[in-house]
Amino acid sequence: MKTIRVLVFGATGTGKTSLCNTLTGISRPTDNGARGITAKSHVYEPFQAGDCKIEIIDTVGLHESARGTVPADQAVVELVELLENARDGFSLLMHVTRASRITQEHDDDYKFFVEKMTQGKIPVMLAITGCENEHPMNAWVQRNQEAFSRFSYKELVPTCLASGGPMEEFFAPLRTESRDQLLRSIIKNALAEPIKLYGAGTNSTFTEALTRIWNEFVMVTGLPEKYRRQVNESAYALMKRLGVPRAIADAAIKHIPDLLEELGNKTPVPHGGKIIRKLSELILHKISDRFRSNG
Asked: Which fold has domain 2-189?
């Protein structure tokens, strides 16, 4: 069965989580408030659509760190975890926006996820929320399609994600229509195989990918230059310098095998990286078992 991994991104309040809930049938909490609800990335349980297995990864709003709702120390951990979730690569990017004018945040999100993080290697589609007041729903797309021509979207999909209240009887069939259209677009535009951002065959290590993505994040969100990764600074040292205490231990331990493999590859020992990685995984496994037995 073909596996499609979809990375969902967009500004806070555009309806990312509602869209993911509609696609997967899993009800995570949503919030229409100014701060939004998605404080960290989330990987949904895979679900089947036709002869495909689809896995959805929801992301934190890119500009939350600039607003102070997600501090820089937490943001770097979020990017570490996002890269961990990217270990198996992505087949498709889904940019979520509301049916309104194109904002600077829209441009920033596109540049960060499409051009910088995935380096234009993964196709991207645009899901447009708030189209329930249009008849038919694609009327907004038809009127505004030219405005999106400067982006490389494979397809623009109008959606209704609204639910509840006195209009639920009206919303329900539109949500079903939206889900069907989104699934058709995902299956149509996804790559045959996910593309990895780092690891074997990519010419990029985990640390290199994190550095590239983090430094771009600092620039896009307007964080002070002091937050950029310094020359020869390890990923662990970067997170420690940003003041991440216990969180870094929880996040970094998952990536110790990656980091050790990078160091091992720089030694003259043949296959040193793979050997060191395997040993570190065995050690971490024993440590984990010990903690569980003592808990």
From this structure: Rossmann fold (3.40.50)
